[in-house]
């Protein structure tokens, strides 16, 4: 075809084509298209990051297997959980026991622990109720029983959950954190070779006991050991609560339900009172303290070795904080990526995504960074605990390694206490912050975060009240500070105390503001500030001692300084754990994880700017730079927010929120759930009340007269 002919053909075709109307609006992106757009921004391999977070491809596939099994198990249906009653939740919780108990003996402990961690994300009530038996009751047997006693209770069905269901009776109506002050007594009766378990006052009533109200047949009771009129402190005893066949209460046992709670209604928390209940002497768990037939009491040579078992729950909550935080930022982030509101420019085709607003980025991006920080901190805290347990199992009194074991126990106890408080407080606040980013929809139970908040809140007060645990951590820091002054080298977690002479008056050595963007500089900044706040607490303690106070009174006097020291220490500790994880990450992940880590470190500094200015590590102009960089990193992390939360690898079933679905189709999923759970056209639930209101007789039905003043 000649060029002239081709031109004429093109001219004709252009006239035949339907022209786009000048006023036709360009096609707007759907929520699903908006989500796809976000995923295309990834500069890293999302699957590789998932493997890194999980500890390897093997563990990722195990977790995916668990999620699939739970989703297909009808007893673990969760879509309607927001509309069921307390009694229905408790019944469902018991239905799940038969499914999960099989895995207790079928899976190695580390794998079963992973299974339970997965369950905790979707059904924390069941996780707790199941954990009461295996984590608390069975854990107490494993940690406090002699080998013969342990074998005895295992033969009775404690491991197989066959023939007995256990609970853990420590907390009382009048005592929680102060375990040494518990009032329940266990008095040894030499004549019968029995202990008499008794509740002497109303405040000695065992309270908040999970599984007690309707389920447990046996319990481990914490009570004051009384032998020949002398008190030997709080010990643990196995007491049968119910007949295992008829489920009637045993003589002298009174039990009730404490009723509706803020969350976790799948647990039948109850109260227990003992009225002169007799048990065999051998029901006292005697791995540590022993009472002979003749009434001789033998205390352990190293009583502090018994504390190891108490740390496990706190470590679990540090890990759980990271997992729940990841779930919360996933829901909030996926919604922010598809929710559009207002237009940033009059020329925009459609409204702007929430995630593109700078203020929304400032609300959400630091929470994502915190979730990553808590994840890596949980991994390292678990390793610290596992190392401690290995040492406790292998160390005997008199061993040359005993002092090293005691130092590890001291460090792990204090670290887990401080992190449990810091991480659970921060995660609870993060859940609420994420809920509020959903706007009005955040008030709906179906979006998941309201229930998540209610279920998670208990973490701040059980296994040790957070304020008490923070004070314990602060007390440990004061002790380490005094040891450091005396020349004793301190462990890695508080290594900054080994350099007090150089750190206390050190300022930032960065030659330019940009030099601040260095992990070593940020870590040094936290070291300097933490050393100073710990010094302040230590100096306050010493001043109180010099004023004539007893050590306990002196610690109380400096309690606010201890709280501040523990808080700042935790910020620095968590940043170090995050930075270490980034340095060990595969090369292809380091760039994005470095941005997230910088965001966590700088945002944390910004939130505590007063300390960095007070101790003159940063100048005011340097702090201005830090604040500006927080916004910069918020923008940079925002670009890959969706790939970063995709790496958490939570299925839609696990998220259980229509606003957090993977494909971004939030509105249809939300509307479908509302209609499914609240069918249209059913019988009106309270029509007679409305009719009686509208059809009532009105005594004075005369019309109102016009106000004469209105006419003037």
Automatic annotation (TrEMBL):
Known pathway: Lipid metabolism; peroxisomal fatty acid beta-oxidation
What does it catalyze?
a 2,3-saturated acyl-CoA + O2 = a (2E)-enoyl-CoA + H2O2
Q: Which UniProt keywords apply?
A: FAD, Fatty acid metabolism, Flavoprotein, Lipid metabolism, Oxidoreductase, Peroxisome
Q: Which domain of life is it from?
A: Eukaryota
Places the protein is found: Peroxisome
Q: Where is the Acyl-coenzyme A oxidase N-terminal domain?
A: 45-155
Name all Acyl-CoA oxidase C-alpha1 domain ranges. 307-478
Ranges for domain Acyl-CoA oxidase/dehydrogenase middle:
167-277
Q: Where is the Acyl-CoA oxidase C-terminal domain?
A: 520-683
What the entry lists under InterPro entries is as follows: ACOX_C_alpha1 (IPR055060), Acyl-CoA_ox_N (IPR029320), Acyl-CoA_Oxase/DH_mid-dom (IPR006091), Acyl-CoA_Oxase/DH_mid-dom_sf (IPR046373), Acyl-CoA_oxidase (IPR012258), Acyl-CoA_oxidase_C (IPR002655), AcylCo_DH-like_C (IPR036250), AcylCoA_DH/ox_N_sf (IPR037069)
User: Which Pfam family, giving just one, matches this sequence?
Assistant: Acyl-CoA_dh_M
- Cofactors named for this entry: FAD
| Regions crossing the membrane | none
**Chief localisation class:** other
Which family does the similarity line name? Belongs to the acyl-CoA oxidase family.
Output this protein's name.
Answer: Acyl-coenzyme A oxidase
**UniProt organism field:** Linnemannia gamsii
């Amino acid at each position: 075809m000649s060029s002239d002919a081709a031109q004429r053909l093109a001219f004709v075709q252009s006239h035949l084509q339907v022209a786009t109307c000048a006023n036709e609006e360009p096609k707007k992106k759907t929520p699903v298209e908006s989500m796809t757009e976000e995923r295309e921004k990834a500069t890293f391999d999302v699957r590789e990051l998932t493997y890194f977070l999980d500890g390897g491809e093997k563990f990722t596939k195990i977790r995916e297997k668990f999620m699939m099994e739970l989703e297909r198990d009808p007893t673990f249906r969760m879509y309607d959980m927001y509309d069921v009653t307390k009694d229905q939740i408790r019944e469902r919780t018991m239905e799940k026991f038969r499914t999960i108990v099989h895995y207790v003996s079928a899976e190695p402990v580390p794998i079963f622990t992973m299974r339970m961690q997965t369950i905790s994300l979707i059904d924390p009530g069941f996780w707790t109720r199941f954990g009461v038996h295996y984590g608390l009751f069975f854990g107490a047997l494993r940690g406090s029983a002699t080998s013969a006693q342990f074998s005895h209770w295992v033969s009775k069905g404690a491991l197989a959950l066959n023939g007995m269901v256990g609970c853990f009776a420590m907390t009382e109506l009048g005592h929680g954190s102060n375990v040494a002050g518990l009032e329940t007594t266990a008095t040894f009766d030499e004549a019968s070779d029995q202990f008499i378990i008794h509740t002497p006052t109303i405040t000695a009533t065992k309270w908040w006991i999970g599984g007690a109200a309707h389920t447990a047949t046996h319990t481990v009771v914490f009570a004051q050991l009384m032998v020949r009129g002398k008190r030997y402190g709080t010990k643990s005893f196995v007491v049968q609560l119910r007949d295992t066949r008829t489920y009637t209460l045993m003589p002298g046992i009174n039990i009730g339900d404490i009723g509706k709670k803020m969350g976790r209604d799948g647990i039948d928390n109850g109260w227990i009172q003992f009225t002169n209940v007799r048990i065999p002497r051998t029901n006292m768990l005697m791995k540590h303290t022993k009472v002979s037939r003749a009434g001789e009491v033998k205390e352990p040579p190293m009583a502090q070795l018994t504390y190891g078992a108490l740390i496990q729950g706190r470590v679990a909550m540090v890990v759980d904080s990271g997992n729940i935080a990841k779930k919360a930022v996933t829901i909030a982030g996926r919604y922010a990526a598809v929710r559009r509101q207002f237009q940033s420019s009059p020329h925009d085709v459609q409204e702007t995504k929430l995630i593109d607003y700078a203020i929304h980025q400032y609300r959400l991006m630091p929470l994502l960074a915190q979730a990553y920080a808590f994840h890596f901190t949980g991994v390292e805290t678990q390793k610290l605990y596992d190392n401690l347990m290995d040492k406790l199992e292998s160390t005997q009194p008199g061993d040359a390694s005993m002092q090293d074991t005691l130092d590890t126990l001291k460090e792990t106890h204090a670290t887990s206490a401080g992190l449990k408080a810091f991480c659970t407080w921060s995660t609870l606040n993060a859940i609420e912050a994420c809920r509020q980013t959903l706007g009005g929809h955040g008030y709906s139970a179906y979006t998941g975060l309201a229930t998540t908040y209610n279920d998670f809140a208990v973490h701040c007060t059980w296994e040790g009240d957070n304020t008490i645990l923070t004070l314990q951590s602060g007390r440990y820091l004061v002790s380490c500070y005094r040891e450091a002054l005396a020349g004793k080298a301190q462990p890695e977690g508080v290594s900054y105390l080994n350099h007090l002479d150089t750190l206390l008056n050190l300022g930032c050595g960065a030659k330019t503001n940009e030099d601040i963007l260095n992990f070593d500089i940020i870590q040094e900044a936290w070291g300097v500030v933490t050393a100073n706040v710990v010094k302040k607490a230590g100096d306050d303690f010493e001043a109180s001692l010099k004023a004539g106070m007893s050590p306990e009174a002196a610690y109380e006097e400096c309690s606010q300084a201890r709280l501040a020291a523990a808080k700042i220490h935790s910020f620095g500790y968590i940043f170090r754990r995050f930075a270490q994880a980034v340095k060990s990450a595969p090369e292809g992940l380091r760039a994005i994880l470095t941005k997230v880590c910088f965001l966590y470190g700088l945002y944390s500094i910004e939130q505590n700017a007063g300390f960095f200015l007070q101790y003159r590590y940063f100048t005011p102009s340097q702090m201005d730079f830090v604040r500006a960089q927080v916004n910069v990193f918020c923008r940079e992390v925002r670009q890959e927010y969706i790939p970063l939360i995709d790496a958490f690898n939570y299925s839609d079933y696990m998220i259980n929120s229509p606003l957090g679905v993977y494909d971004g189709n939030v509105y249809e999923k939300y509307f479908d759930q509302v209609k499914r759970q609240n069918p249209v056209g059913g019988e009106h639930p309270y029509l007679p009340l409305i009719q009686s209101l509208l059809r009532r007789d009105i005594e004075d039905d005369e019309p109102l007269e016009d106000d004469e003043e209105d006419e003037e």
